Amino acid sequence: MHWTLERSRNTCPICGALPSQPATNSLQTAVCGSCGTVLWCFTTGAATWYYHYNPVTLALHCEHRRATLPPDFSEKLTNDEFLIKVMQTGLLTRGQVSALLGPVSDPKSGLKGLDSAELAMELINAGALTAWQCQLIQQDRLQGFVTPPYRVVDGFYDGATCRVYKAKIAGTATDAVLKNAISPRAAPYLERELRSVNEVNSPFVVAVREATTLVVPNNPHFLVREYFHGCRLNTLVKNVGPLPPELTAHIMAQAASALSAFHEHGFVYRRLVPRKIIVDASANVKIMGTGMVAIPGVETPGADQKILRRGAYTSPQQRVVGATTDTWSDIYSLGACLYFCLAGTDPSGRTPLRAQIERLASEVAGADSALPELRSIMRFCVSANTNNGLTAHELSVQLRSVANAP
């Protein structure tokens, strides 16, 4: 298998020279003293891998480029109508619009020479609006952008139980994530997330902000989380392709540490999939979305069972109606995520995952020295023996050992 992420061990992948080596396990910039190429270097133990580009930064850039206005934006909305609607949302006042675009004493007077799409792009480029906000304004969805002290700037996800938004906190440069239950029946998911995250308190789990900020006025079903700037693992692989073994091991070791923190408190995460794993530009990792966590003594809603029995990352144990879910379900999902990183595609739900791992191993045989160890870890993760004794913490140690191999 050819890794699409061009890289070289201890040398510049462009000219073969020996750049200086950083000392920490994270993605950092380096400049090759021979050819002058700006590289991204990833130090793992005794070796340093030099990448031609930062894979996370590339993935974020690709996603940002997709956040554009619809082609019919100006056809559905004149520039006058657009400005009036912007001010109706509370996102910008007339004075702010005037400061950004020049004097606008009367919004109905319009701006000559600009259609509404061009006007929107002026405000987007000035950092006053986002493409996501402009699309909702075009659709006449003008409510909910400003809920003091929060200002919603982007939509992240519409899930089965919640909608997730990026927000700014008024008067600060701080970003936050607002998670809104779709209905009062979904509120227990937020309560479970609050309890589990606060009890676990792990650096590998996206944190919930202090209790005084959890309830947004007029909507008691909001949760406010820290904003961890990175991209989802599924987005990273979609834009970059299969990840090199050393980076895969480094990322998944941190995910295993997050699972270990839940297990130490008696919780089972139950829903580890690539889109729940966030990777930042330095290859630091946090997992999020803990509303499905199994908590001892807390009844599992029937809706949980239906959701948890679906998907290629679900353990065979979870697919059995009425079966008790234990920590092995999380370890199985970890193995499936490892497969996803190396294969660049989701596991097939029609073929046993172990067979897919063997096929992947034959395709990449001899391609990289770390692959046999990762193959052994994947085999263990998907083993049907739930009493094999190896914990998520021990898996994290093994994965770090693979990442740090000389």
Describe this structure in words.
This protein has 406 residues and is of the alpha+beta class. It folds into 4 domains: 47 residues, no CATH class; 80 residues, no CATH class; 80 residues, Phosphorylase Kinase, domain 1; 173 residues, Transferase(Phosphotransferase), domain 1, CATH 1.10.510.10. It has a 5-stranded antiparallel sheet with strand order 5-6-7-8-9, with helices on one face. A hairpin with a 5-residue loop joins strand 11 and strand 12. Helix 3 crosses helix 5 and helix 12 runs parallel beside helix 13. The protein is globular and about 65 Å long. About 2% of the residues have low confidence.
SSE layout and pairing:
Layout lengths: L6 E3 L17 E5 L6 E7 L2 E5 L3 H12 L6 H4 L2 H11 L4 H8 L14 H10 L5 H8 L7 E2 L2 E9 L3 E8 L5 E7 L5 H14 L21 E5 L4 E2 H8 L4 H20 L12 E3 L5 E3 L14 H7 L7 H4 L7 H17 L9 H11 L7 H11 L10 H12 L3
Antiparallel strand pairs: 1-4, 2-3, 3-4, 5-6, 6-7, 7-8, 8-9, 10-11, 11-12
Helix pairs in contact: 1-8, 3-5, 9-12, 9-15, 12-13, 12-14, 13-14
Tally of helical runs: 15
Q: What is the average per-residue confidence, as pLDDT, rounded to a whole number? A: 80
The amount of beta strand, in percent, is 5-15%
Main β-sheet description: 5 strands, antiparallel
Q: For this structure, what is the CATH homologous superfamily of the largest domain?
A: Transferase(Phosphotransferase) domain 1
Q: How many angstroms separate the termini?
A: 21 Å
Note the run of SSEs as H and E.
EEEEHHHHHHEEEEHEEHHEEHHHHHH
CATH architecture of the largest domain: Orthogonal Bundle
Q: Output the structural class.
A: alpha+beta
Strand order of the biggest β-sheet: 5-6-7-8-9
**Shape from CA axes?**
globular
Count of the separate structural domains:
4
- The CATH C-level name of the largest domain is Mainly Alpha
Low-confidence stretches: 211-218
Percent helix range:
25-40%
